[in-house]
Amino acid sequence: MEVVVESLWGQLIVTLVLGFLTGLELRTYLNTFHQGKDEIFFGTVRTFSFTAVSGFVLYLIDFWMFVVGFAGLTGLFLLFYAQALKRESGSVLLYWVWLLVYAYGALALTQPLWVLALIFVMIVLVLNAKDSIKQFVNKVSGEELTTLAKLILLSGIILPLLPREILHPMLPVSPFKIWLAVVVVSTMSYLGYIAQRYLFKEQGILITSIFGGIYSSTATTVVLAKKSQDVPRLSYQMTAAILIATALMYFRLWAIAAVFFWEVAMILWPYLLGFGLLTAVIAVVYIQIEKRFGEKKQVFTPAGNPLELKVAFVFAFMFIAMAVVTQLVNEYFGDSGLRYLSIIVGFTDIDPFVLSLLNGNYQADAMTVAGAIVIAAGSNNFLKALYAYILGEPLAGKYSAFWLSALGGATMFTGWFVLVA
For residue 198, what pLDDT is reported? Predict the structure, then answer.
């Protein structure tokens, strides 16, 4: 019995102290943000202390007493709020803080101490973040919030509802894995887009090319190649940026493999990470060459928001189509057919193909799948080399096309003769 009494003493003291500190914090908030304004406020530090103790005592007596106490306090606040509205100074912030303080006692009696402490810390942080929250709200558009809702829709609502079993032999991937691939790629692309748009908005080409590479190295190559026409004196820097985007392609492919097929990721890591690091080193060399002429920061506008529902559905359709094609090629032409398909796919969007390989139940073993991914990556480099040469400023286009072609050839050779042979 003594243990129970001591526990109640401790819970009561913690409730009283946190109620007092919350009232003190709220008073500081009012003095900081509302000083000199013709407003009235309900309660003092003592009011919040007694509110916390009242909640503790009433919950200890009976749950319904606690509810009645809550209703009574709410009625008192409504009387205060009616007077505040007449003065055109009404705010419900005080009520929400007061409600949480009233719940301190119930939390202390029913939950671990860290829950009560976390609620207190959250109140303090939110109250002191008023200016930061205003700045954030002014920066973030309604479109971005809509985009966040789309991400939640894709990952939190649609994904759990999909069946996890294969529905037809011609489609060797379950609906759950198809949509999981959509969620993973969309999330990676969206995070790169958000970082580029808000965290590094005023940064130069080299920083933005990193996040562009996370989104799509092919699309970033096209944008950079076109931009190089506007800054012909920055040929070396534009070449470095294009190569950095390709380096991120290698890293992104390995990350996707690690998420969906760890055995393949373990086979791929020395090759994809090696080619990624090699590409990054070449880019650094061009950055150092550019510095001789005085580096100038150039900014290009981020690509459009990649997380659009129609884009997600198109990606899902491409994933399904690529899974079916891969199944047929593998069934009728074996591993050699898969290698030739990898070359062809490299001149399109390779993500659906890579994801279909990693998620499907094919006859190919892990080594063959890894080789096909590497071949597709090399083939895609040739496509980017073509874009860079045709769309880019002559010098930047030539440099970029040369290195992308060299990397493409080396990558395809590795996939064809080292991994698959």
Answer: 66
Looking at the chain, the number of H-run helices and the number of E-run strands are 18, 0
Q: What 3-state class would DSSP assign to 354?
A: helix
pLDDT of residue 3: 35
**pLDDT at site 360:** 66
Q: What is the pLDDT of residue 276?
A: 94
Q: Are 400 and 385 in contact (CB under 8 A)?
A: yes
- Contact between 42 and 77 under an 8 Å Cβ cutoff? The reply is yes
In whole angstroms, give the CA distance from residue 7 to residue 68: 26
pTM above 0.85, yes or no: no
Do 117 and 67 touch, CB atoms closer than 8 A? no
Distance CA 202, CA 331 (A): 51
Distance between CA 42 and CA 77 in Å, rounded?
A: 8
**CB-based contact 389:397 (threshold 8 Å):** yes
Per-residue model confidence (pLDDT) at position 294: 53
Question: How confident is the model at residue 2, as a pLDDT?
Answer: 39
H-type alpha helices, 261-308: 262-291
- Per the CB < 8 A criterion, the answer to whether 172 and 360 are in contact is yes
DSSP state of 171: B
Across-strand partners of 168? 171
Query: What is the rounded CA–CA span in Å between residue 251 and residue 283?
Result: 15
Which residue bears the tokens 């809509």?
Answer: 146
From the list 309, 311, 343, the residue with the least C-alpha distance to 412 is 343
The torsion region of residue 93 among left (phi > 0), alpha (psi -120 to 50) and beta comes to alpha
| Packing angle, helices 366-391 and 235-260, rounded to 10 | 160
Burial of 123 (0-12, 13-18, 19+ CB in 10 A): buried
Sign of CA dihedral 66, 71, 72, 73: positive
Low-confidence ranges of the chain (pLDDT < 70): 1-6, 33-43, 81, 83-92, 130-145, 147, 167-173, 181, 185, 188-189, 191-193, 195-204, 208, 293-315, 318-319, 360-363, 420-421
CA dihedral 72, 77, 80, 85 (to 10 degrees): -130
pLDDT score for 11: 86
